[in-house]
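Teaching assistant here, posting this on the class forum so everyone can see the example we discussed in section. The complex has two components, and the goal was to see what a joint structure prediction looks like when all of them are supplied at once.
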Amino acid sequence: MVNDSDFINTLLLTGKLAGWTTAILFVIGLPIAYVLSYKRFWFKSLVEALISMPMVLPPTVLGFYMLVAYSPQNAFGSFLEKYLDVRLAFSFEGVLLASLVFSLPFMIQPLQNGLVAIPRSLREAAYTLGKSKTETFFKVLIPNMIPSIVTALAMTFAHCIGEFGVVIMVGGNMPGETRVASIAIYDEVQAMNYDVANQYSLVLFIISLVILTVIYSMNGKKKMLF
Amino acid sequence: MLKIDIERSMLTSEGKCLLKVDLEIANNELLCLFGHSGAGKTTLLRILAGLFNPDRGFISFNGEVWYDSVKKINLPPQQRNVGLVFQDYALFPNMTVRRNIEFAQKIRNADEVDSLLSHFGLEVLQKQYPTKLSGGQKQRVALARALAAKPNLLLLDEPLSALDYEMRLNLQDEILKAHKLLNSQTLLVSHDKEEVLKLADTVVVLRNGAVINQGRPVDILL
């Protein structure tokens, strides 16, 4: 049987992973989405395909490659260990990095769709009024894509709390470090603790339902803007 | 004085053609670019605003060079200080009518905003958002916003094309008002003869990218 503090700690860890992933991806996702929406370059399709790969790849494939990359026998893992004294395999930070890669399309695509949906004339009007690209981005583009931003944040967060394959490959099942709710459910079912598995499942079910309801209500508002 | 001598290849529904314009526009003149769609009117306006680049040529305004392909000078839209009224008005949906006008000001001045709101009959609408406005109201806000930036040059891209006949007649007066308030050059894109005859000091007729006629509207269009 799992006690209450384990249950709470697992959910908090799940929230911590999803929260950090969402926050970091939002900060790096905005400029990436901006470039993909408004700039033309010859390898753009390749970049878009790479960002979307986690949507079609089995999570275990991505998890496997991340694990290989983290190994001190390979360049990336060896660099981290030698210069930063960091080992990412089977750690929260390792799971977080894998989660960032795995959730990238869920942040980028709604942001990109939001930017593309804003009529070009709004940007151009701001430029002719003397506003810089940065000021236009923060005062014209961002406020006019709030529904897309909420969708991106909610999709990323919701996707993160349901991650299983990548987390188990990269982080294993370490309570307090890498054991998130989806892994706990699997673990409890294996141990035939169906009541505990049910508690975790119910919490994930309710969170996902609330998030999706928010997304659909924001999508309704998006149609009214332009 | 606005001097334009530019070339730019364009892709129209009838295939490729060359926009080739050599014009001088005197101070305080309201010039109308007249022609069918695809003639290059909007392209020329966007080139003047700095939103499109010509392939080659020269543009200067009161002695300041905005574009020179030989000397590789190309001022971005932010530095040309033009007021461009778009076909779709391009009002910022996240800002109220008043905020749209304030946003255009280089130095915040509430009295000037009040004066523009009053000039264009927008006082009662100042707290409304653009999605709640009619086409005519949006057009007036767009004009007021363009003037709030105190532009060197006012560029109007078929600002009345989406409106009904009666509304057009009323708003033509607003355009004249805006032109007089600005006290500088205005370029208006139109394919409506009546509108050109009423508003323009000079008309430039474009066809397939080339200037085929220019002069007083009564001499050219009647």
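For the discussion questions: The CA atoms of residues 37 and 116 of chain A lie 6 Å apart. The two ends of chain A are 54 Å apart (CA to CA). Think about how each of these relates to the inputs above.
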